[in-house]
Design goal:
Elements: H1 3-16, H2 28-35, H3 39-51, E1 55-58, E2 62-65, E3 75-77, E4 87-98, H4 101-107, E5 114-124, E6 127-137, H5 146-150, H6 153-159, E7 164-175, H7 178-184, E8 191-201, E9 206-214, E10 219-221, H8 227-234
């Protein structure tokens, strides 16, 4: 594990255990001495924690944990830890097709209603890291366009007057197909992560279903120990 990754995960652990009085982290010099690393390594670690929304840096005052952080589970991955200005999307194709029975079930549609299906790549720091194939119901989003796909689906959905509720995500190990290998500039069979997302509105309807193939994918999360759940699983 890289030094920065170790420091990030160790600081996250200390933050969740409320080891910093008043939510204030030690200064960079103290942290460098604590972890026996250079100031540069500490600065990189702090930059990462700042970018994923864990801490805020107040000039002349110090580094503070966001107030609501410990009330929420933290999950971040290769994309969510990267600022939006370093991520871009490029659409490969988009079309309208008749929904399959499975599509109709996912989106609560009548048989044969149309859905959008589009493919795009995610580019991080000028490198293609993910290929995404998504579906959205035409009845909810009749004017979906290339501009929306390449900008932000979440912003587009909200601009249509819908309120986003939550996401259900599953992760499965996979291997890069011959078709995707050409786009990802890697060999066929390269290990990758398949990420399936169901994106839901507050009214309970799924507004998007997507499947991503990601290379160089990492995911870090913190799960509080649930004693009651642990005992229930043993019984």
């Amino acid at each position: 594990m890289k030094k920065t990754e170790f420091i990030i995960q160790d600081l996250l652990s200390k933050i969740y255990q409320k080891q910093f009085p008043n939510g204030k982290l030690p200064d960079q010099r103290t942290l460098a001495e604590m972890y026996q690393v250079s100031r540069y390594t500490i600065q990189e670690s702090i930059k990462n924690l700042n970018e994923i929304g864990v801490i805020k840096v107040v000039q002349g005052s110090g580094m503070y944990v966001y107030d609501n952080l410990q009330k929420n589970p933290l999950i971040f991955n290769s994309l969510t830890r990267t600022p939006y200005d370093r991520i871009s999307s490029k659409m490969i194709e988009i079309s309208k097709v008749k929904s399959t029975p499975k599509d109709a079930q996912i989106f609560q549609l009548h048989p044969s209603e149309e859905i959008w299906i589009f493919q795009r790549v995610r580019i991080v720091d000028f490198k293609i890291e993910q290929i995404e194939v998504s579906k959205m119901p035409v009845s909810l989003f009749p004017d979906l366009s290339k501009e929306h796909v390449e900008h932000s689906i979440q912003e587009y959905v909200q601009s249509r007057g819908y309120e986003i509720s939550h996401y259900i995500t599953s992760y499965t190990p996979t291997a890069v197909t011959k078709e995707h290998a050409k786009l990802l500039l890697c060999k066929k069979g390269t290990p990758a992560m398949k990420i399936a997302n169901r994106c839901l509105l507050h009214v309970g309807r799924v507004y998007e279903y997507s499947e991503l193939t990601a290379i160089d994918y990492t995911c870090t999360y913190i799960t509080p120990f649930d004693k009651e759940m642990h005992q229930a699983r043993q019984s």
